[in-house]
Amino acid sequence: MKNILYIDTADNQKTKVILEINGKKIHKEESLHHASQNLLPLIAQILKENNLALRNLSEIKVNTGSGSFTGLRVGISVANTLGSQLKIPINGKPPGQLVLPTY
Length: 103
Fold this sequence. Notes:
The N and C termini lie far apart (34 Å). The chain has one domain (3-86): Nucleotidyltransferase, domain 5, CATH 3.30.420. It has a 4-stranded mixed β-sheet with strand order 3-2-1-4. The protein is an alpha+beta fold. The model has no long low-confidence stretch (mean pLDDT 94). The chain contains 2 helices and 4 strands, in the order βββαβα.
């Protein structure tokens, strides 16, 4: 089963999280000022609603730019941390290789 988590925090007014389960995409979006602060609860919510845990993820894809400097750093930091701890690829890079922002 392929479960891909997509993270987009490039817009500082909106955070998007998409969970792809075997090709089916489920969207979650938070629209607030400094919305990237709600990234982790948003990830937890979308996983819980689909009866999945972090360990069930097979890959993470994260928007690396262009966009909000702080928002991108939040999304990329979360993706790098989760990918490293779960030992799964981020943006197609092997586990352990960090994804960098493109401002």
